[in-house]
């Protein structure tokens, strides 16, 4: 039995590695018949029969990718799964399994890891993926989480970044910039809290933005939606670092250029309001803010009629020959070269 004087803080070194893994993963069930062997051996065993397998990994480091000052561990666990699922969705594949590796210091009690794994469990349930293994090790200070996601697709379903062709339409799902502004709100509240811990923030005007930052969702629905609409994207990528840098990845891989229209960028009303409040240009935020986890893809112009009425899909531009470059056409109809500024750049020079 564990000796536990403080019910909220059970030191993890009381359990030992095997008991810890067992404790954290005992509620994980197996949902896919492709999972032949899950947690508990030297390696998991999978069988995808005639399907192709897609694999993607992400690494999240405390202090770099997340701040436990405002990201609750449950949300962090959920989001760590989501960012990986999003990469599988961006290949137009179905996520099926994940592995979860963590490095923790003894600063984290068992209860903290339980929270983290509760988030991982909820996301695995929502996205219908099996947790099939991982690794657990110690870290000298911060928390590190690495997740590998595995997915399946028929060969002809897979969509790469390099298939966009001249005249294709550029489409984005959902809306842009909200996750970035959610982070700005949280950062501001954290500063207020540091000055006066009794100050209870009123975050009602920012609920959508904060949710987009703390609990983003991957667009697992889009594969099915496009199948129903009988549209296959010619190229696709997920928006983790911001629209502009993803547009550059896609156009560079496809050896094309593109024109994006400012007036077509999908913005949530809450984003527009908060940008005014922070005195930031909403277009800049929509283009450069990161972590929206929406999908950016191209379709043949002839498929336009099939998608035009769908509220999830927004045509924001079109592909041009490579030598014409990558531009944004402003509301005033001026053509400006788009710059590939990612997520980290914007925080350094946001009023540039
Ligand atoms: P090894 O010594 O071969 O690295 P481990 O003792 O680390 O094996 O892991 C034992 C089993 O538990 C393996 O199936 C492994 O995939 C799984 N596992 C280890 N750490 C985690 C974790 N953090 N989350 C989920 N599964 C884990
Ligand atoms: Mg191990």
Automatic annotation (TrEMBL):
UniProt cross-references to HAMAP family, sorted A to Z: TMP_kinase
Organism encoding this protein: Paenimyroides tangerinum
Pfam entry (one): AIRS
Binding-site positions, Mg(2+) 3: 42, 87, 238
MF GO annotations: ATP binding; magnesium ion binding; thiamine-phosphate kinase activity
EC number per UniProt: 2.7.4.16
Residues reported in the UniProt entry to bind Mg(2+) 5: 241
Positions with a binding annotation for Mg(2+) 2: 58, 87
Name of this protein: Thiamine-monophosphate kinase
Annotated catalysed reactions: thiamine phosphate + ATP = thiamine diphosphate + ADP
Entry binding sites for Mg(2+) 4: 42, 56, 87
Keyword Transcription regulation among UniProt keywords: no
Binding residue positions for Mg(2+) 1: 57-58, 135
Residues binding substrate: 65, 291, 343
Family annotation (PANTHER family): THIAMINE-MONOPHOSPHATE KINASE (PTHR30270)
Pathway: Cofactor biosynthesis; thiamine diphosphate biosynthesis; thiamine diphosphate from thiamine phosphate: step 1/1
Main function: Catalyzes the ATP-dependent phosphorylation of thiamine-monophosphate (TMP) to form thiamine-pyrophosphate (TPP), the active form of vitamin B1.
Residues annotated as domain PurM-like N-terminal: 40-152
Extra facts: Reaction mechanism of ThiL seems to utilize a direct, inline transfer of the gamma-phosphate of ATP to TMP rather than a phosphorylated enzyme intermediate.
Gene: thiL
Source domain of life: Bacteria
Similarity comment: family membership: Belongs to the thiamine-monophosphate kinase family.
GO biological process: thiamine biosynthetic process; thiamine diphosphate biosynthetic process
Residues noted as binding ATP in the record, renumbered to the chain: 117, 134-135, 161, 240
Keywords for this protein: ATP-binding, Kinase, Magnesium, Metal-binding, Nucleotide-binding, Thiamine biosynthesis, Transferase
């Amino acid at each position: 039995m564990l000796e536990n004087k403080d019910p909220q803080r059970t030191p993890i070194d009381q359990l030992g590695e095997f008991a810890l893994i067992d404790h954290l993963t005992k509620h994980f069930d197996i949902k896919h018949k492709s999972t032949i062997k899950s947690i508990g051996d030297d390696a998991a065993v999978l069988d995808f029969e005639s399907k192709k397998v897609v694999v993607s990994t992400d690494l999240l480091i405390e202090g770099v990718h997340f701040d436990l000052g405002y990201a609750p561990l449950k949300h962090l666990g959920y989001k760590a799964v989501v960012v990986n699922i999003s990469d599988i969705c961006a290949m137009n594949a179905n996520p099926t399994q994940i592995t979860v590796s963590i490095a923790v210091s003894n600063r984290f009690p068992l209860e903290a890891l339980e929270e983290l794994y509760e988030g991982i469990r909820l996301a695995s349930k929502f996205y219908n993926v099996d947790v099939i293994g991982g690794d657990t090790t110690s870290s000298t200070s911060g928390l590190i989480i690495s997740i590998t996601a595995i997915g399946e697709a028929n060969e002809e379903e897979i969509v790469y970044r390099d298939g966009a062709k001249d005249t294709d339409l550029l489409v984005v799902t959902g809306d842009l910039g909200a996750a970035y502004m959610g982070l700005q709100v949280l950062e501001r509240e954290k500063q207020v809290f540091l000055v006066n811990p009794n100050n209870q923030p009123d975050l009602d005007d920012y609920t959508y933005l904060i949710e987009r930052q703390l609990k983003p969702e991957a667009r697992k629905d889009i594969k099915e939606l496009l199948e129903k609409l009988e549209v296959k994207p010619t190229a696709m990528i997920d928006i983790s670092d911001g629209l502009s840098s993803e547009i550059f990845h896609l156009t560079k891989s496809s050896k094309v250029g593109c024109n994006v229209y400012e007036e077509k960028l999908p913005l949530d009303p809450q984003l527009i309001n908060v940008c005014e409040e922070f005195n930031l240009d909403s277009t800049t935020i929509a283009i450069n803010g990161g972590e929206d986890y929406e999908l950016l893809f191209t379709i043949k112009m002839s498929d336009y009629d099939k998608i035009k009425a769908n509220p999830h899909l927004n045509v924001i531009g079109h592909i041009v020959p490579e030598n014409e470059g990558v531009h944004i056409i402003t509301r005033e109809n001026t053509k400006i070269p788009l710059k590939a500024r990612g997520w980290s750049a914007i925080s350094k020079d946001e009023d540039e």
